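This is your field. Have a critical look at the following sequence-structure pair:

***
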Amino acid sequence: MITTAETYHVPVLLKESVAGLDIQPGGIYIDVTFGGGGHSREILARLGSRGHLYSFDQDADAERNIPAGLSTFTFVRSNFRYLRNWMRYYGVEHIDGLLADLGVSSHHFDDETRGFSFRFDAPLDMRMNKRAGLTAADILNNYTEEQLADIFYLYGELKNARRIAKAVVKARAAQPVSTSGQLLAALGIETTEEDSQFSIPSSQSKKELARLFQALRIEVNHEMDALRDMLSSATELLREGGRLSVITYHSLEDRIVKNVMKAGNAEGKIAQDFFGRVTSPFQLIGKVTTPTEEELLRNPRSRSAKLRIAEKI
């Protein structure tokens, strides 16, 4: 599949998220979700010769989008959860801003070989980093029924998580569930509406399947743990006045980002000083920003996007 920077991923809330960084020409910035490079290019356009941008992405495909010949740019092929270690490696003690677009790239959904979308009958891989770790198929075929139910409920917020897990376990007893088509068949998606064995009601199938695939993807890539680690590192690295600009797409990640910006920790535990004043390393900047109607028409996948911006104090 041939991709370009433009087709790899259409950047969401591009101007708003970069403007939120309040970029200083000589500052040091990080884009922890390089993808197609849209946000990175916007940041680079605002940097001077003394500024620098470090961009992270663990997907080898993203490297095709690296801008060439820029002394102000460094690409880091790694999971952003290792942000602190990489900045130590490059001798960076403090940064002026960090941007994260937590959505899955359009490239991943459209590449039928990666297994991110139920639109294609493809091997259930779902790894952002194809070099290591369990695939979605490994999880479906080796986790216990209880473990699967927990994943579907916690990461997909599926009310019928136990029923879905039971259907998967029943199907894999006959043959491994290794492709999207096999997973849909295990859930009765191909049966008639009158069939009472539906694990996912047909009227809600697309929405429920999206949540199911989301849950598997989060588990495969350890997304929640990685997000917590990255935000913890960002909190330490940001200098006073530095900005954190984060775009989220579902309630699980948005809750963590909101808690960190409000309380300084992923759990949202509020700390107070002797006088009862809330102590947090961040001050919120503006209100939550969502895509305009114009952007939604251009990029329907941005519908659930929320941009939050905070400043280190």
